[in-house]
Design brief:
Layout lengths: L26 E5 L14 H18 L7 H18 L12 H10 L22 H15 L13 H14 L6 E3 L2 E3 L1 H8 L6 E5 L16 E2 L10 E4 L2 H14 L3 E5 L11 E2 L13 H7 L21 H9 L7 E10 L5 E6 L12 E4 L1 H7 E7 L5 H7 L3
Parallel strand pairs: 4-6, 8-11
Antiparallel strand pairs: 1-9, 2-3, 4-12, 5-6, 7-9, 7-12, 9-10, 10-11
């Protein structure tokens, strides 16, 4: 493998014909075990599906055991806390279906975890996948109304009534959080079940690379900044790395046997619904409608997905170009997936292998997507990764303990 995968200049790729030859043919170079692909359905919960897929791979790596964890448990608890923060800030923090990588770790640490069988998606309305449009139509208005209240009514047990109301609606559509349950013949609470998985939140770090904040250094003991994204409502911090170093982490992680929780913009013309993400001179970075938004509002995805279905040259963006796309809202935080491997096409171009959450029938590759390192370099917002996947040199440089 090349020493710098994500940031390679791909000189040989630029010598290829742009639109000739067969469709993409991929060969796996390196891959890490993942759990089965799921379908987030009609809900903005990609962060929960990718996040728990990432956690499931971590547990599979350490315990050699596959789990199916409940996305609805994570989403339910996150929505309750996000609603509270929206009310506390009088609406300055938005409320919505989205979430951040940090939400996964916070929920596991504070509220615990349950297997998917305890809170499966769609159960409350007889489906096997989520349909949250009606839920959002109700709760969004409730939260908005609560942010305008000047005084809050409180129940005899001391809890504010608006919280009870919002919880009740979520329970109708998502189910109740279990206090205790039996799994594989053993009794658990959500807290004891989470503990049994062996996941320590302190083992993980969020990384990003943008120029509008200083890069983190060893001198500031790994202090990062709160990335300005609407769904980073907890204001979770990310270590800010130089772009080449940030990209180096991707290949280092796969080589070391760790998957990557990837936050990206996939509403670009270069991200094809057929299952390939490319970034080249012909890709016009214009769309600001997120992929999840397209799914939710029913827009025609073909209008936003125009990339070729054949291998083609790639463009390597500079830090300045990447920053300009972010500042101009041409790069937005709209989808989360899990990177778990490296592949090559028939021309020798490298790709990251990505586990998506649109079901195992999406795209040509049964829910697996292939994105070039150039796309990752240009369109990544941030990643969550096990600290052990980062080289000692980069840990020291950025003060990651």
């Amino acid at each position: 493998m090349a020493a710098v995968f994500c940031c390679s200049l791909a000189v040989s790729a630029q010598q290829r014909p742009q639109a000739s030859g067969p469709d993409f043919k991929f060969t796996t170079v390196d891959s890490i075990a993942i759990t089965p692909i799921k379908n987030q359905g009609n809900a903005g919960t990609c962060w929960a599906y990718s996040g728990l897929g990432f956690i499931e791979s971590e547990v599979l790596r350490t315990k050699k055991k596959a789990y199916d964890l409940s996305e609805m448990f994570v989403a339910f608890n996150t929505y309750m806390e996000r609603a509270e923060k929206a009310v506390r800030t009088s609406g300055d923090v938005s409320f919505g279906q989205g979430g951040d990588f940090g939400d996964i770790l916070v929920v596991m640490e504070r509220m615990g975890m349950v297997p998917d069988s305890e809170m499966p998606a769609g159960k409350m309305y007889g489906k096997e996948i989520s349909a949250h449009s009606e839920l959002s139509a109700l709760v969004d208005q409730m939260v908005a109304a609560a942010t305008r209240l000047r005084t809050m009514q409180v129940s005899p047990d001391g809890e504010q009534l608006y919280k009870k109301a919002i919880r009740a609606v979520h329970e109708v559509y998502m189910g109740k959080v279990p206090e205790a349950f039996t799994y594989e013949g053993k009794q658990y609470t959500p807290q004891s079940f989470a503990k049994s998985l062996g996941i320590n939140a302190n083992d993980y770090v969020s990384l990003t690379s943008f120029m509008h904040h200083p890069y983190s250094t060893g001198d500031n003991i790994g202090i990062g900044y709160a990335m300005e994204a609407q769904d980073n409502w907890r204001w979770a911090l990310s270590i800010n790395m130089e772009l080449d170093d940030f990209c180096q982490v991707f290949e280092d992680a796969i080589k070391a046997g760790y998957t990557i929780l990837w936050g990206s913009d996939v509403s670009e013309a270069g991200f094809s619904r057929q299952g390939v993400g490319v970034f080249n001179d012909e890709v016009k970075v214009e769309s600001t409608v997120s992929s999840d938004q397209i799914r939710l509002i029913g827009a025609d995805p073909a209008a936003a997905q125009k990339s070729s279905n054949q291998p083609q040259p790639q463009k390597v963006v500079t830090p300045e170009e990447r920053q300009a796309m972010y500042d101009g809202k041409q790069t937005t935080d709209d989808h989360a997936m899990q990177i778990f491997g490296i592949a090559k096409d028939q021309w020798g171009q490298k790709y990251f292998m990505v586990k998506n959450s649109w079901g195992d029938t999406s795209g040509k590759y049964h829910g697996i997507y292939y994105v070039t390192p150039e796309y990752v370099r240009a369109k990544t917002l941030n990643i969550l990764i096990n600290k052990n996947a980062i080289s000692a040199q980069l840990k020291a440089k950025y003060g990651i303990k």
